[in-house]
Amino acid sequence: MYNDDIKNLANYRLEQAKENLEEAEALMQINKFKGASNRAYYSIFHAIKSILALEETDFKKHSTVMAYFNKEYISKNIFPRELGKRVNEARLFREKSDYVDFYIVTREEAKSQIETAKIMIEKTETYLSEKIK
């Protein structure tokens, strides 16, 4: 059903997501919570983009990627609503830590981001394995 280029792109983006998660966990180990949170967010973002690759859909803006994922996958219950809430929370944390002066990411926030990234990767792997056979 999907051509090799599409499959390769989806898998490449999923591998990026996993690499970002590894980076987040490494940063967490050395108490770099802002960096850990950022890498966890990008893990989530690349996992979502791996899903969109199957549709041959892409967007330049992060907010558009997230809005599309919510509209097409969360609201249609392809992915659980709770995950949608966590993904939105991850986006908000990333925006605050990147754009709000003096915002300090806590250990708990970074830990939550990493947990969301793990869930997102797990759900994405399942989704892709069902779609790419």
Description:
- It is built from five helices and no strands.
- By secondary structure, it is an all-alpha fold.
- The chain has a single domain, classed as Nucleotidyltransferases  domain 2 (Four Helix Bundle (Hemerythrin (Met), subunit A), Up-down Bundle), CATH 1.20.120.
- α1 (4-29) runs antiparallel to α5 and α2 crosses α3.
- The termini are close together.
Please indicate the count of domains: 1
Sheet/helix structural class:
mainly alpha
CATH architecture: Up-down Bundle
Q: What is the CATH class?
A: Mainly Alpha
- Kindly identify the CATH topology: Four Helix Bundle (Hemerythrin (Met), subunit A)
Main features:
133 residues; mainly alpha; Four Helix Bundle (Hemerythrin (Met), subunit A)
How is the topology of this model organized?
Layout: H1 4-29, H2 33-55, H3 62-74, H4 81-99, H5 107-131
Helix pairs in contact: 1-2, 1-5, 2-3, 2-4, 2-5, 3-4, 4-5
Please sum up the structure shown.
Helix content is 80%, strand content 0%. The chain has 5 helices and no strands.
